[in-house]
Design brief:
CATH architecture of the largest domain: 3-Layer(aba) Sandwich
Shape: globular
Distance between the termini: 50 Å
Number of strands: 22
Oligomer: single chain
CATH topology of the largest domain: Rossmann fold
Bound molecules: adenosine-5'-diphosphate, magnesium ion
Radius of gyration: 25 Å
Number of domains: 3
Strand order of the largest sheet: 6-7-8-3-9-10
Number of helices: 17
């Protein structure tokens, strides 16, 4: 099916979220929509899927004007959408979710489970998307749930499949798998609209790329377009894709980890006799496939879990076995992996989140009563310094974009004197403009003499930031490398091939 959008416009009050957007998607084409957070990508797709009504413009299917009143109309016309936030029913099985609303019935009107399972297995085989039809959705990993969402859309015989930021929640391996699956779907004749703000995957996948900025189409280009050029189209200014940093000047060990072991509830060592040091003024990156003990290591370094053996010292002070508050008190700053879970309180304001751990300090409260003026003054300084885009410092952090939420966490952690900064996946889900900013701030922290430990599943990020790289696999440090080590060598170590 050929899909054309002409002059599609959507306003939210004074905000023009989509401004006369023109777009053509040819049959079987993989068309990527590239744009920063807030550019208007989801809004555009929601109009195509009948979740929003355009204020102006029209949609043409096979050159005929088409009115889309609701998702039901879109599905009937052969348009399917996999949303940014999955819409599965957790207590249903995979087959039940996929067949929801179109369950095959036996002659007596009962749900024909066997037929439903056959249909799901058939779809799963045709597109190479492995799922267990009888598994409960609640028991699946995020990557598996996404496969169910895709199958659910495919079960409707879609001709245009829309995926809104599908890789934001996936591991590098799952992203590779998804790209293969999408290629197979497109090869079978279905057009794909793939929304992303990540340059690498867009250039890998797309037949064509349309860049959207502030609600308008900036350009449609081919996949051979250099990443730097795409970044500039997307952000509207030239972006430093490589972190500008000088050679590290290490100033002696600040964080010393020795023989550290953590066991899980089953008694299995998830961190197994780990020893390393991070000096002030250097960035050490821990590379590894997700789930090899990195999260548990971080938790032990923060006092969130108690190690069964070993020692963690900051500036010579032993912290193992002490409380998280003692760890923070020793000068450890922390940018968590899952910021929405551990990094801030979404319903609290920007100003409140900026002092979460500091609220008891004399500059913010007296006799246990917070001083609103001091809190607001601190917030406006941080907002300025870290370029946090919020309408006001009293806005709840939950309403900011991902990039701005991360800046709130960074601003809070970096605004007190630190000995050690620990950051887990510091730029996961951020757009290029924000990544550049976060990376530069981390390097600046290093240059002020802080010992920085980065844990990231993105090798690009490990390479971009690290002065020294440790590889973690099966709970152990299996290798030490410098940043000139080839990717294949690191990849092999990460996969346990040492
Ligand atoms: N329902 C809504 N009401 C008001 N503003 C909205 C609504 N949905 C989106 N917006 C605003 O429209 C702009 C584009 O948002 P969106 O389409 O979600 O961007 P993207 O998907 O590219 O990140 C943003 O400024 C966003 O805050
Ligand atoms: Mg979006």
């Amino acid at each position: 099916m050929r899909l054309e959008l002409r002059g599609l416009t959507k306003r939210f009050g004074a905000l023009v979220a989509n401004d006369h957007i023109d777009l053509v998607v040819e049959p079987g084409e993989i068309h990527c929509l590239l744009g920063e957070n807030g550019a208007g990508k989801s809004t555009l797709m929601n109009m195509l899927y009948g979740l929003l009504q355009p204020d102006e413009g029209e949609i043409l299917l096979n050159d005929k004007p088409w009115h889309c009143g609701s998702p039901r109309d879109s599905i009937a016309a052969g348009i399917g959408m996999v949303h940014q936030h999955f819409m599965l029913v957790p207590v249903f099985t995979v087959a039940e979710n996929i067949m929801l609303g179109r369950e095959p019935r036996t002659r007596s009107g009962l749900l024909d489970r066997a037929a439903a399972r056959r249909r799901v297995e058939d779809l799963s085989r045709r597109y190479g998307l492995a799922v267990h039809a009888d598994a409960l959705v609640a028991d699946l990993s995020v990557g598996e749930q996404q496969r169910v969402e895709i199958l659910k859309a495919l079960a409707n015989d879609v001709e245009v499949l829309i995926l809104d930021e599908p890789t934001a929640v996936l591991t590098p391996q799952e992203i590779d798998e998804l790209i293969e699956v999408l290629r197979a779907i497109a090869a079978a004749g279905t057009s794909i609209i793939f929304i992303s703000h990540k340059l690498k995957e867009v250039t890998r996948l797309a037949d064509r790329i349309t860049v959207i900025r502030r609600g308008a189409v900036i350009a449609t280009v081919g996949p051979g377009t250099p990443e730097a050029e795409l970044a500039e189209l997307m952000v509207g200014r030239s972006v430093e894709l490589v972190v500008a940093k000088s050679r590290a000047r290490p100033r002696g060990p600040k964080l010393v980890v020795d023989g550290l072991s953590v066991v899980d509830t089953a008694g299995v060592a998830v961190v197994d006799d780990v020893s390393f040091q991070v000096e002030g003024g250097e960035i050490v990156g821990i590379a590894g496939v997700v789930g090899n003990g990195q999260s548990e290591l971080i938790n032990a370094l923060l006092g969130l879990v108690v190690p069964v053996r070993g020692s963690v010292t900051v500036g010579g002070v032993e912290l193992a076995g002490r409380s998280p508050r003692d760890h923070l008190g020793a000068g450890i700053g922390y940018v968590p992996e899952d910021r929405s879970h551990d990094g801030f309180i979404g319903t609290f304001s920007v100003a409140e989140n900026l002092i979460l751990d500091l609220a008891g300090r004399p500059e913010f409260s007296r006799h246990g009563v917070m001083s609103p003026n001091a809190v607001r003054h601190n917030a406006s300084q941080r907002v300025e310094e870290f370029d946090i885009r919020a309408r006001s410092v009293s806005d709840p952090v939950g309403e900011l974009s991902g990039g701005n939420q991360q800046k709130v966490v960074l601003a809070r952690e970096l605004s007190r004197p630190l000995e050690v900064l620990i950051a887990g996946q510091p730029t996961r889900g951020l757009d290029v403009g924000s990544i550049e900013f976060v990376h530069n701030r981390i390097v600046r922290e290093r240059d002020q003499g802080t010992a920085v430990l980065i844990v990231s599943a993105e090798l690009d990020e490990i390479y971009a930031l690290s002065d020294r790289i440790l590889v973690m696999c099966g709970g152990r440090i299996v290798g030490v490398a410098d940043p000139s080590t080839p990717r294949e060598t690191l990849g092999l170590l990460m996969a346990g091939g040492y």
